Amino acid sequence: MRVTQTMLANSSLSHINQGYNRLATIQDQLATGKKITRASQDPVVAMKGMRYRTQVTEVEQFKRNLGEAYNWMDTADAALDQGTETLRRIREIATQAANDSYNAGERANMAKEVQQLREHLQSLGNTKNSNKYIFNGTDTTKPPVIDINSMEYGVDKLFATGTDFNAIEVVYDGKIFKQVGIEGNKQIFQDVSQTSPVYGEADFDDKAVQLIVQEGGRVTFSEPNRAYNSNDPTSEKAVKKDVRSQDVIVADKGAVSINTQTVEIELLKGVTIPVSINPSNVFNNALFGDILRLEQALKDPTVNGKDLTGYIDNMFTHIDSFVAERAELGARVNRVQMMENRLMEQEVTANRIMSDNEDADLEQVIIDLTIQESVHRAALAVGARIVQPSLMDFLR
């Protein structure tokens, strides 16, 4: 086959152009640090890269979710801590007031402090994090302590025309009561936590924890007698006592929100953690009702130290509820911390796999660049020598 000068020139230019392309590819790898800059260069690497990058993006989002979870739970823990301290102060006041050495005026001054502490608890119940109310379940746009003024209607509300008994709660001695029956001018209320016996059953009067409110304000509290002895004819099955009408709180059921739906945040793929607490266990009508009962008792000059002793136990019960919620919240914080450690390990692994798939080996790229530069210079030199002769050189 006859090889012409044109064929030599074209072949030389083609090889030089290919060298330029290889140089461009190597320079792209050196500039970007990536093996490829277009999917067409290596479709397998491109497809794997999309999958690995999605995994890295998920881990980064979960890390942001972790920050949100920590903010929510830390805010809730701080509010519960302050609430616990507030209740302890109220308990101290109740303990102090139970001493009969204090006169009515001094106890009335104590009632003013209790009122301020109650209002502080109400503000804690409306704690916000990132403009969200954290103690109102999933309804984070509305404050849980909705209507402070509807926390005490007075027992006369029970006999007012048009009263909706499904919309009110009666609070006494740390318990919430609901209406179960009417007997003449008497309203019968039973502890909501007691499901048996049911009103109308034969043993209801003996075994039910109930409040009997008569029109005019007389209130009787009845509960089963734990010391009842069937062999003792004088022993009574139920213990009954008269209660001051001011010691019974009639509150709107909606005064404190009862939304108990939990707020959950996804921290790992398919794994969600509840970051909210059950607000009905801490901020409820029973809590504010018992504090209002203490306020009114401190203002009542007929109440003696022995009567005030019962409020101390009420405060202990509410403190225990706050501590229990903090304990559960702390357990969840510990779990979130373990999930954070796992997430950090996943992040390292995901970034390493993505780097192995996409990142170029810079040492090898530099070596390849040096070699290609040498080859390119040699190709240019050879091409110059081949293409250099002109027509005058052939005529000589």
Automatic annotation (TrEMBL):
Q: What keywords sit in the KW lines? A: Cell projection, Cilium, Flagellum
Entry-linked Gene3D superfamilies = f41 fragment of flagellin, N-terminal domain (1.20.1330.10)
Any single Pfam family the record assigns to this protein: Flagellin_N
Q: Where is the Flagellin N-terminal domain?
A: 5-140
InterPro entries attached to this UniProt entry = Flagell_FlgL, Flagellin, Flagellin_N
* Signal peptide extent: none
- What SUPFAM superfamilies does this protein map onto? Phase 1 flagellin (SSF64518)
| UniProt-recorded Gene Ontology molecular function terms | structural molecule activity
Question: What Gene Ontology terms describe where this protein resides (cellular component)?
Answer: bacterial-type flagellum hook
**BP GO annotations:** bacterial-type flagellum-dependent cell motility
* Protein's name according to its UniProt entry: Flagellar hook-associated protein 3 FlgL
**Native species of this protein?**
Halalkalibacter nanhaiisediminis
